[in-house]
Amino acid sequence: MTERQLVLEDGTIFSGEGFGADTETSGEIVFHTGMTGYQEMLSDPSYCGQIIIQTYPLAGNYGINRDDFEAVTPFVRGFIAKECCRFPSNARSEETLHDYLQTNNIPGIAGIDTRKLTKHVRTYGTMRAVIIDASKNPEQALETLRNTSPQTGLVQQTSALKPYVVPGAGMRIVLVDFGMKHGIMRELLKRECHVTVVPYNYSAESILRLKPDGILLSNGPGNPKDIPDSMEMVRSLLGSYPVFGIGLGHQLLALACGANTEKMLFGHRGPSHPVKDLEKSKIVMTSQNHGYIVSHQSLRGTELELTQVSVHDSSVEGIRHAVYPAFSVQYQPESAPGSEDTKDLYDEFLQLITDWNANNKEDIYA
Question: Is the peptide bond before 337 cis (omega within 30 degrees of 0)?
């Protein structure tokens, strides 16, 4: 195994063993707190441009299978684990984590103190980092990193290039793809929806011509303010059809309604984040992956109502429009990986569509 170095933007250096692709990489370093779910995590487009720390010490012990991907192409830049298992033991396993990363040109580093590294990121926040060969000069890599502009264009990398249709016999849903997880599509297809997927830069006029029953704004990577045209598209759609936003889609809905978003110190990434539902007076466990949040204070003066908050830090986890049929959540209700406490949000979305149609569509036989 090759020796590699992890160099953080603040000059901190960790040394370890390489696995996965034999290449160098750079990206924003973040941590994920799940004990399982590394396959879903690595294939989640919301991790585009990031180097992931798995806080659980062992990765790869149940291998990689054909069923648990959240996207065909992974967009992560690198993977960090305390230990990478080279010989997985699971009936569903079809290849090793090492082989999967190698095939997709993603380098990994193991054998470092991931507990210490995670605590460092929790203290000083997410920052840029590089994974390089141990023979390279870390000072030179650090200088190059610091002179590199912050990443942009992440949604453009992960969104569909052209519209496509996944036929169904049920409600007609337009799914705006900002970096969609396959779990969202699976939940819609379970409910027999007819889904038309459109790119992030599809115009409101083009969406309205599709005459959907409802519009779903997907998850995605990066800063929502990097795609202002998408925010304007959401604003133009409000009131025309019911809207459901997830992750980045939630943040875009908030921006479209006059609220604001802000970057978190180290984000929420993991499958067991408790959220309090203020409308139902209960706590649910959620799967999360985001580094930006809707500012709580910015909801004042808008027509948005706070519906859910994080139990950990009281950050905004859910909102609802007081006038239009639109609501959104910050977390991932498809729960891949994670608790299945919130999958009923898809049913609530379809019920919202049913209620909206009953109240607003004209009776053609009248």
Answer: yes
